[in-house]
Amino acid sequence: MLELIKKRRSIRKYTPDPISDSEIKALLEAAMAAPSADDMRPWEIIVVRRKDLREELSRVHPWAAMCKSAPVVFVILGDARRSSRWVEDCSALTENLLLAVTGLGLGAVWVGVYPQTTDEGYVRRLLGIPEHLRVLCLVPVGHPAEDKPAHTKFDERKVHYETYAGK
User: Which residues of the chain have pLDDT under 50?
Assistant: First the structure.
């Protein structure tokens, strides 16, 4: 698991090979195994495969361009009516999704949408998302067309023991 975590990288280039139904189901199952405050599970996910919709999602902001070339984009939604911790819960779900992607030998990147209300509105209108659901992020997924070495961003200077001043 520790090696898998280090292997997870932001992959923005994909081959045109499709993602199978069984891979999508495995990714969704792994994502939804995430912890959730009070077990509220305030998430919903839209799986976008249609080329025209992926192309439109790539226009949400300049850092979403890779949605166009990914064979599938997961749109992570949170229901603030169900939980005041929807951001945390949906973020845990997204990290599970990203780790599962890596475990399957696929590539993905977290494309933030929330809290930019203009970007959220664009995605909401495009995909017919009800007003009570918030758009946390997009996760384009595909077979990697780039190779990035495993790494860690560990920084001892950011670690404190017992108190903030504790070293």
Answer: none
